[in-house]
Amino acid sequence: MRPVRDRRREAAALYEYPEHLRSEIDTLPRAPGVYTFHGPQGDVLPLYIGTSVDIRGRVMDHFRTPEEAMLLRQARRISHVRTAGDIGAQLLETQMIKAQSPLYNRRLRSTTRQFSLQLHRGKVTVVKSAEIDPARALVVYGLYSSSRSAMSALRRIADDQRLCYTLIGIERGVAGRPCFRAMLKQCAGACHGAETLGDHEERLRAALEDRQVSAWPWRGPVALEERGADMRQYHVVLDWQYLGSADNLTAARRIRGTTGQFDRDAYRILQVPILGGMHKIVQLAA
Q: What NCBIfam families does the annotation carry (predicted)?
């Protein structure tokens, strides 16, 4: 199979402005939301789903990109959904991509695997989301798509902070004896007494702190209010999972849903808006 880069070059060489889509631009607003390129199969299998605070401007960027010639040739129409702002657009985009699996989207695909780091008595272990709920766990760090990526992150932290691979559980060693990295001056020496175990664990906790997954701060669902220039939405969230949006609180209270596997994409989008105090948060009946 030819490399993706070669196929992209060939597509770019065949680029022609998508005249058949020119009329579609007229229907697109200069406003936040989600847009979808539909191919011959229509709504059954979308080609691409994207988001922008300026839908029309972003779609026009696609038209100017020769590397997307294949997508543009296959597209038959472009639909869109307005949102009040960027938060709602991002949430809707992730929801639509996971539900519809568009052909050209590579990120935000639904995943059944989720891993985090957990610290206990100075040692770090990789845990699966099926074994622990990151929405409620207070000592879980990071959200990773594989055990390998979680361990790679831990190694980077250990390297940056001169932590001992043996003590944190990356490698095996003999108690009281210098590890290999200590002999290379890459470990501060907690493995052989040059640093106290307490100081070592404190440095480890400090290094992990900014990766800590925040526990869900309410007992039930909440509505995050987002206001735009001409639109207002209430995004309903429970256990860091997005359940849906409504244009008023009465409709928001009718939104129901059950939480399942922790959604790291929703968490990434929502953590700062919900905890940052910049948006109105309304508690809904559980």
A: PRK10545.1
Residue 250's nearest CA partner among 218, 223, 281 is 223
58 contact partners, CB below 8 Å, separation of at least 6: 35, 50, 51, 52
Domain range list for the chain: 4-100, 115-211, 222-283
- pLDDT(132) > 90: no
Are 259 and 241 contacting, i.e. CB atoms less than 8 angstroms apart? yes
Q: Which residues contact 196 (CB under 8 A, 6 or more apart)?
A: 190
Give the Cα separation of 67 and 137 in Å (integer).
43
Cβ neighbours of 283 (radius 10 Å)? 11
Q: What distance in Å separates the CA atoms of residue 194 and residue 206, rounded to the nearest whole number?
A: 19
> What class is the 4-100 domain?
alpha beta
Count, in order, helices (H) and strands (E) of the chain: 11, 10
User: Could you say which DSSP state residue 216 is in?
Assistant: P
The residue count for the chain: 286
- Tokens of residue 59, six digits: 């779609």
Q: How many CB atoms lie within 10 A of CB 202?
A: 12
Strands 115-120 and 140-144: antiparallel
- pLDDT on residue 77: 93
Q: Which pTM was predicted?
A: 0.81
Position 135 pLDDT exceeds 90: no
